[in-house]
Amino acid sequence: MRIVLLVCAAVPALSAQALDRAPSPDGPIEVSACDPAVADGLTRRARQALSSPGEAAGLLVKAHTACPGRAELLLEAAQILARSHDFDRSLLLADEFLGSVSASVPGMLAVADIQLRAQRFEQASGTASEVLRRDPANATALKLHGNATYFLGRSTEAEAIFLRLLDKYPADAEGAYMLGRIYYQENRLAHASAQFQKVLRLEPRNYKAYDNLALCHEALGDPEAAIRHFLAAIQIVEKDHPDYDWPYANLASLLLDQGDAQRAYEAAGAAARRNPGSARNFYLGGKALARLGRHEDARKWLERSSLLDRTYSEPMYLLISVYRRLGDEASAAAAAERFRMLKASEPDERR
User: Fold this and answer.
1) Alpha-carbon gap, residue 161 to 350, rounded angstroms
2) With contact defined as beta carbons under 8 Å apart, do 91 and 7 qualify?
3) 189, 213 in Cβ contact below 8 A?
4) Which of the listed residues 56, 140, 173, 211 has the most CB atoms within 10 Å of its CB?
5) What is the pLDDT of residues 154-181, one digit of tens each?
6) Residue 132 CB: number of other CB atoms within 10 A?
7) Which ranges constitute the DSSP H helices of the chain?
């Protein structure tokens, strides 16, 4: 299997009202006096500074200092930092929040989501499990627990969690999608295909389901159906989701396998414009350019891919032949040595 997509259950930012729950069973939490005017002013400034996540989070922490009883400000700051991938600081604030509002189920769900995004899978599983101890039918907790369990390598247990979710909530499209991803990664392609088809019956414009259904058809040896479903995903994301690049890249890979280098380059180019930080997008574009005989352009794309991910061996392997085509034997030899080093340290399956 080529790709693993990390899928997190959607946990929205929580309001103060959503977190205003009964105190911990250990008794009420003692807090110092609150200065609501200062806290409100800092909070407003923070929400106006969301383009600078560190600044916004810092203002929310100051707002919490001014009014320690408003623990939801810590969680809001943690969520802002998590969205900017500053997981170390986000997790510290999430832990501080849990210490303040240990009985808040909505807050625990938000923390579990942060832990999952940060790939702290044991923590995410534990937090979600605590929610399920209090609320065994909580759909969001089941999804978070299922995802964390899967990424801990316990796929059979994760499958059982998602089946439990779908038994309680058969119309839960997100749960069906997640179960389909597990089946796909385990090469249970017919089962995976059935789940993605179910998602599309529930949500006809679910572009991720189209993309993954296409991957199933590709793996089952039906490239025409795969292309059709990739294009269906692309039609949806083209305007509505301008940053989503997966169906373009997946289509490029399939077209390369089919020998259509020109269309593959066009698809890879669209993927790279949408996500210029993806090493795979530039590798696919470089591979297509090499097949088209555009070796100087291929060199630029492949070098860009290698810079974006210095552990990625595929672009380095292709660069060996591209450098030779360009008459640069010294660079070809250096690329060959780099490729040997990368392959020696590379896992059996890139995730």
Assistant:
1) 26
2) no
3) no
4) 211
5) 999 999 999 999 999 999 999 999 999 9
6) 17
7) 16-19, 36-47, 53-66, 72-83, 87-100, 105-117, 121-134, 139-151, 155-168, 173-185, 189-202, 207-219, 223-240, 246-257, 261-274, 279-291, 295-308, 313-325, 329-345
